């Protein structure tokens, strides 16, 4: 052990080694950073020797030097590699929260890149040559698409809910049905957000039944808001009763200084109901019914970036824009660019909306999915004999806490390997391929659903499966 410790090279010797200079040039690291990495590797080796656990080459040999610099290179790659990386979503779940929810359209991506690369008129009026507002860039589009008088954007829908309640109902009563006190992902509850905002929660009705007279009886001089929360992440079925938006709008109109606020959650700007997909209310329909203010997400059914969108009466939106918290929860230029790039496709009409991956993937026909699956399996079996592949009808999910009761008919490819279990195949696809591939495992079969795999990703997916190493 003592001989090995004495044979460990000094740092200044290693700094003059050709491999050190090579790593220095290839990785664009400053000398102090690379030296620190080198010291860390040497310390690791020294500690293993002291513990009697060193199993590498004998210190002082050429082989040892090669191993040392190989370890150094691996550490550099690990230290300076991105932790957010591209994955291929082969699960069929369109708004997969763990995988980043909505994919942006090419128009949105191009607009983000251009905005990020250059200076922009984020808060500058070009015609007037004076300071402007970042709210203006997407407000006109939201107004056109939803029919609202005004709009603003914050960093997510939880922030939107918080800002609305804090600004409009601080230390005042907000009436909400017990059946709508939902919990959003990550244990964020509407009731908790309301408490933090300073609003006073007034629960009415029961979990499964709330009537109009419950709202009427709850009204008091301290009431500021009647709030309806769309339960987009769960469904209560059976013996139920809820009050429709139109009735609540009419009720608030008969009151002084009471507004009707609906949190729509998922944010459908497109009417999926006409395709028989779910029963999500379209934002424009709720605005037309007379809602004073609505809030919804940007990265769910809308198919854009993470954002919270607030739309409604101009007087209310103007009040929200002036609130001190508006700056705390405001969005950056890249989010606005992504949202603008997405909303422009909505403004152009239904044909352009198909450019948005979320809408495209929701509306793709089972016939198209079957054709793609058949062709994929044909190519797979031509390239490898290690798999058995079958195609059958199954279901995809929308995901992202949206349309919980909607199952989209799809065609899945079920794979079995001659040596590996489905768990082993799934692990190899996650950890041994670039990009990583996420698929479903069911009954010891690996399920591939091409609904969420782009045409451009199919060859990457095919090659990754063919090249799986059974060892």
Structural class: alpha/beta
Number of helices: 20
Work out the number of β strands: 17
How are the strands ordered across the major sheet? 4-12-11-10-9-5-8
Average pLDDT reading: 92
Quote the beta fraction. 15-25%
Helical content (DSSP H or I, runs of 4+) = 40-55%
Shape: globular
How far apart, in Å, are the first and last alpha carbons? Answer: 35 Å
Please describe the biggest sheet, giving its number of strands, its sense, and whether it closes into a barrel: 7 strands, mixed
The Cα radius of gyration reads 28 Å
Q: What are the low-pLDDT stretches, counting only 5+ consecutive residues below 50? A: none
Structure description:
The chain is of the alpha/beta class and 471 residues long. Helix content is 44%, strand content 19%. The model has no long low-confidence stretch (mean pLDDT 92).
Question: What can be said about this structure in brief?
Answer:
The chain has 471 residues and is an alpha/beta fold.
Q: Notable features of this structure?
A:
20 helices, 4-stranded antiparallel sheet, globular, 471 residues, alpha/beta
Describe the SSE topology.
Layout lengths: L1 H6 L3 H5 L2 H10 L3 H20 L11 H18 L7 E3 L16 H12 L6 E2 L4 E2 L4 H11 L3 E5 L2 H13 L3 E5 L5 E2 L3 E2 H8 L2 E5 L7 H7 L4 E7 L15 H9 L5 E7 L17 H7 L3 E5 L10 E5 L1 H9 L2 H4 L4 H16 L1 H4 L3 H7 L2 H18 L3 E13 L2 E16 L4 H10 L4 E3 L1 E3 L2 E5 L5 H12 L5
Parallel strand pairs: 1-15, 5-8, 5-9, 9-10, 10-11
Antiparallel strand pairs: 2-3, 4-12, 6-7, 11-12, 13-14, 14-17, 16-17
């Amino acid at each position: 052990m003592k001989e090995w410790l004495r044979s460990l090279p000094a740092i200044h010797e290693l700094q003059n080694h050709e491999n050190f200079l090579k790593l220095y040039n290839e990785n664009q690291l400053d000398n102090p950073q690379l030296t620190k990495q080198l010291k860390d590797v040497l310390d690791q080796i020294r500690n293993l020797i002291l513990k009697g656990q060193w199993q590498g080459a004998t210190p002082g040999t050429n082989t040892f030097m090669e191993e040392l610099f190989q370890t150094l290179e691996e550490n550099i790659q690990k230290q300076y590699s991105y932790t957010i990386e591209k994955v291929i979503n082969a699960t069929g779940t369109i708004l997969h929260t763990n995988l980043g929810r909505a994919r942006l359209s090419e128009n949105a991506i191009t607009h983000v890149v251009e905005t990020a690369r250059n200076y922009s008129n984020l808060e500058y009026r070009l015609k007037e040559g004076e300071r402007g507002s970042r709210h203006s860039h997407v407000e006109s589009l939201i107004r056109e698409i939803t029919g609202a008088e005004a709009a603003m954007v914050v960093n997510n829908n939880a922030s939107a809910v918080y800002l609305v309640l804090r600004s409009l109902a601080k230390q005042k009563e907000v009436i909400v049905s017990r059946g709508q006190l939902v919990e959003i992902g990550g244990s964020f509850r509407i009731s908790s957000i309301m408490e933090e905002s300073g609003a006073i929660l007034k629960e009415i009705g029961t979990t499964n039944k709330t009537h109009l007279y419950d709202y009427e009886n709850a009204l008091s001089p301290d009431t500021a808001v009647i709030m309806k929360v769309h339960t987009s992440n769960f469904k209560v079925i059976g013996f139920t009763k809820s009050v429709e938006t139109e009735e609540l709008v009419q009720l608030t109109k008969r009151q002084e200084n009471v507004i009707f606020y609906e949190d729509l959650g998922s944010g459908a700007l497109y009417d999926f109901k006409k395709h028989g997909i779910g029963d999500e209310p379209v934002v424009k329909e709720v605005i037309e019914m007379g809602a004073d203010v609505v809030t919804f997400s940007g990265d769910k059914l809308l198919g854009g970036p993470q954002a919270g969108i607030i739309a409604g009466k101009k007087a209310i939106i103007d009040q929200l824009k002036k609130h001190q918290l508006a700056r705390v929860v405001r969005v950056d230029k890249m989010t606005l660019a992504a949202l603008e790039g997405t909303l422009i496709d909505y403004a152009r009409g239904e044909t352009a909306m198909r450019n948005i991956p979320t809408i495209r993937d929701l509306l793709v026909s089972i016939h198209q999915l079957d054709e793609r699956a058949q062709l994929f399996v044909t190519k797979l079996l031509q390239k490898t004999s290690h798999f058995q592949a079958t195609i059958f009808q199954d279901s995809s999910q929308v995901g992202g806490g949206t349309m919980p009761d909607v199952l989209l008919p799809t065609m899945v490819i079920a794979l079995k390997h001659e040596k590996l279990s489905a768990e082993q195949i799934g692990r190899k696809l996650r950890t041994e391929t670039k990009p990583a591939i996420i698929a479903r495992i069911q009954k010891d079969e690996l399920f591939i659903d091409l609904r969420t795999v782009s045409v451009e990703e199919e060859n990457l997916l095919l090659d990754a499966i063919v090249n799986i190493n059974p060892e």
